[in-house]
Every structure is written in C-alpha cells, then in structure tokens.
Amino acid sequence: MALETHVSLESRHLLLGVTGSIAAYKAAELVRLLKKAGAEVQIIMTPDATRFITPLTLGTLSEREVLIDLFPENEPGSWTKHVHLGRWADLAIVAPATAQTLARLAHGFCDTMLSATLLSARCPVLLCPAMDHDMYHHPATQQNLEQLRRYGYEILPPEFGALASGLVGDGRLPDPERIVAHIAALLRRQASLTGKHVLVTAGPTREMIDPVRCLTNPATGTMGFALARAAARRGAQVTLISGPTWLPTPPGVTRIDVTSAQEMYEATLQHAPTADFIFMAAAVADYTPVETAPSKLKKTDDELVLRLRRTPDILAELGRRRRPDQVLVGFALETDNALANARNKLRHKNLDWIALNRLNEPGAGFGTGTNRLTLLHRSGHQEELPLLPKDEAAEVLLDRVLTRYADSNAEKAATQSV
Ligand SMILES: Cc1cc2nc3c(=O)[nH]c(=O)nc-3n(C[C@H](O)[C@H](O)[C@H](O)COP(=O)(O)O)c2cc1C
Which residue range or ranges hold the DNA/pantothenate metabolism flavoprotein C-terminal domain (predicted)? Predict the structure, then answer.
C-alpha cells in the first residue's frame, strides 16, 4: 500500500516503543515514514529489542537518542524521564508489540523504561502486536489484549500472512505505511469531541420482585462502555449511567450506577440538559412489578401471578425534551421486522440516529465481544456495518455521528450567511 501523500503529522510528538520481535526491522521504515510526515519521534526500546535491531539504526533515523534503560548509568538525575515523556507525547505507539510486553502492560509491570513510561502516560497508546499465530491466539495473549482494550489502549490487530517461523497465519505486523495511516486517523479522531459533553447509558436494569429476585435481561454493558471509552479518548467529558455490570469504569469517564429503570430515567433526565450527544445503549426493562414484596416470597404449589406496569420511556422523554442542537442516538434490538420497527422508533421518539443490533446473527447482540450494527439516520440514510469488535463498532458509530453533525452545522452556517 502506498503512503497517502496527504498524511501530515507535522510537529506531532510521538513515542515509539520497539520490542523484541523479529518484526522489529520494520520499525526502521516506520520511523523514516513518521519523520517524513513531519513528526518528532522519541524511541524507547526494550533491552531485548536491541538483539533484533540496533539503537544506532533507530537513533540515526529518529535523530534522537534512543532510550533503553530504566536506570541509566550515566544519567543519575534522569529517573523521572519516563513520566515526562508520557506527558510530552501526543500518542505512544508500540510496534512491534511482543506477547511479553503485552503481558507486562496488561498487568501493570513497571520493569522496563517502555512499560514505566506507558504506565504513567496520559496520551493515547496504540499497540501493534506481532508474533507467531499460536502465540497470538493463546488465551493468555487474547485475555491480555482484552484487558488492554478495557484499559483504553488502541489495538491494531496483526495481519494474516507468512510468518518468520515459516508458518502461515495471524501475527504479521502490518506494513509501516498502514501503521502510519492508522496513526494519522487516530490523531485526527483524538480531539474530535473536545469541549463536548457525551451522555451514555449502558447495561441492563433490574426490577426487583422481592429482595432476592428480579426481572432483568442478558445485557452486559459492553457496547455502552465501549462508546463511553471511545468518546473519552476523543476528548469528551463523558457521563456513563450504568445498570448492574462487572465492567470496570473506562479511564476519564464519570460513572453513575443505577439499578432499576426508574433510577436510570431519573439519572438520565438529570444529566441530559447539558449533554451535546446522548447515546442510549442500555437495555432498559419495559415492565416492572406493580409491587416489590418486602420479604422473600415463599414458594407454594400454586401458580404465581406477577402484575407488571410500564416503566417510564426514557428515550421518548429525551426526544420530547431535547434541545435543537442536541444529538440523540438510540439503540434497538428487534427479533421481528427489525428494520421497520427500528425506523418507527427513530421517527416516533424524535431521534437523530438509531443503531439496530442484529440479535439473530452469530457474534452479534448480548454478551459477545462483537456486534453487527445497522445505522439508520432520520434523513433515511442507512448503513450496514460489518461484524466488528464492539470497540471498533463504537468508533465507527462516533465517526458517522460526528461527520453528519459537522455537515449539518456547515449547512446551517451556510443558510444563515445567505
Ligand atoms: C528469533 C526470535 C524471534 C522472536 N519473535 C517474537 C515475536 O515476533 N513476537 C513475540 O511476541 N516474541 C518474539 N520472540 C520472543 C521475545 O523476544 C521474548 O519474549 C522477549 O523476552 C520479549 O521481550 P520484550 O517484550 O521486553 O522485548 C522472539 C524470540 C526470538 C529468539
């Protein structure tokens, strides 16, 4: 793939971590391209990376001294360098990232200059794993990657192809041109929500029947948490209202925990007035018991009849109260007449967008790491997204919503100036 001529990284501060993979030779070309695009590149190598490519090569190409040791012998006063570097950088990249370094980062080990720097970095971090197929697919590596995603790290998955072992499989470091294009896209996204307040709801709700039993659904909150994480990475102030879930709070996100649909309604309406973008990804119960028994219901041989009443419709209420400049995005999960029902919801609830989850397809819907969304806009525009990891689906959804938002603002400005 040829490097896009318009890629500019002028004056960008990039930290490039290089680790002990056979693909470390590609780091030389990567540095050359980053420098050509105008970036300042500070390289940190792990001690093992120096067995694969010399600091002399990378130092010459980056025009900066390569850092390797956490405790450099000749610079006794420089032990806080790793903290300052993490603040200097606009973005840190680890390419190639070994299984060993991924494990270190996933578990917070601080025993190399690179992991110490990344642990204290405030900038976004892009990891580009490169390794043998089976190392990559080992549950330990996959779990480390999953954990790193939850911590907010960006992952550029390796490619399928011929590997250094002579085998063919997943694990190849993408070509430096692709990595540069990815870095440029990440940096463009980075500030796209600065100054904006994004409100996200996520997870299931729980409607208590008695103190130990409830009505709920299988939602885990993964999609909403992915959206909150992605919005925070783009510079937004994010409020995440979450039903019961075990997911950790994404970095930089203010989380409000609720249990019932009524609590979610109240918390959402409280925070909506200041929100610029609202994403309603929670699976909210439509019905709740008319009464919650104060103590555990005793079982009998008779049938138990539960009387249920409607819960408040949060989305419809937000649609009624919305400010004209507020963007309202709903989610739909339909098993029958999915598209028609989603379009109906979009219109009747006064939404800008609706993201339709495909429950009946493998890998999509509740409790999976992936999702297949169909995006519907109030203008009638419709787009089918492929099956994507939920983090990527969140990024694409934000990209689409922000592009439309910028276009409609530009149209409004043009109309006013006529
Ligand atoms: C020839 C050779 C090639 C290697 N290639 C890789 C690789 O591509 N990916 C990987 O995760 N580990 C690879 N390893 C293993 C790492 O070098 C080893 O785990 C090392 O400790 C990584 O340390 P670091 O992450 O601190 O650089 C390779 C080892 C050898 C001897």
Answer: 193-402
